[in-house]
Amino acid sequence: MNVVLPQPYLLFLGDTTEPGYAKTAFGLRDWAPERCIGEFSLPGATVTTGLPFLSPAQARNSGAQAMVIGVANAGGFIPPAWIAALVEALESGLDLVAGMHARLRDIALLRETAARLGRRLIDVRVPPEGIPVGTGKRRTGKRLLTIGTDCALGKKYTALSLARAFQSRGVDATFRATGQTGILIAGGGIPMDAVVADFAAGAAELLTPDAPAAHWDVVEGQGALHHPAYAGVSLALLHGSQPDVIVVCHEPGRERVLGHPDYPVPGLRDTIELALRLGSRTSPRIRCAGISLNTGKLDADEAARVIASESDRLGLPVADPMRGGEAFDRLVDACLS
């Protein structure tokens, strides 16, 4: 799907207290900063993007055209406590854009207010019609998929960084978005977690069609293969995208699965082994090029130490794409080799 959205945006953070659930807002701030005017949140929110705090009316007066729900909470629902703020945005002259499982147009008050004011309700978490069942047939071109040890730890940022690095080297590469934030950044893609399960591998095939031999599709991963709730979407992407290369993403120090504290985060070796074993079903020559670490909570010296230590331990290139440098160059080399 290709999305033409009213821009620039006011980012809505709701009453969010978990930074991992605000990944849509952070993704837009980091990868489409020219489209983001400010942020708006409710009392009790502790998460901020660092952008100016603006009311919907102030944002509209500053040129904003839409308010984007910047939260991707567990279950993708729109809490009743948010409705008044969403109505306020409509009444201030802003369209609403959301990537939640819950649809804006299914909420009567929002639908009626938008109709009365001539405002738009835009849901981007809507898969295209006519998705086929996966075939498992090989396609031309090259593919890279980011795999995670958990949710919300850098799969999208890694894919975006690698696609940009490939392009900077003159390599024909396309970032393939599979979630609402990626779709908002790229202007197209398929929201994999909104696809009926039987068609999810087919959606991944549809997203990564036949391409010239030298072309790379860099596919945004979703979920995690060990995840107690979201392993299904991860496996469908792995089978359907048929990656030649995987890059495994991890956050040092994260010990428990986000939102599922009874489950430990799996180790990198276990994640690599499982991904290669399952991925070889449709991509027999699949390989792991290296590791992407999210070291945002570490200072520069500690991040460098962890990156070097993990590279020595695993015998693979390890880097934080957001820090760049020689470590990231080695990871890019390994992906393209």
TrEMBL record:
Domain D-glutamate N-acetyltransferase-like N-terminal: residue ranges: 49-127
Origin superkingdom: Bacteria
Residue stretches making up the D-glutamate N-acetyltransferase-like C-terminal domain: 133-326
InterPro entries according to UniProt: DgcN-like, DgcN-like_C, DgcN-like_N, P-loop_NTPase
Coiled coil: none
Protein name: EBNA-1 nuclear protein
SUPFAM superfamilies: P-loop containing nucleoside triphosphate hydrolases
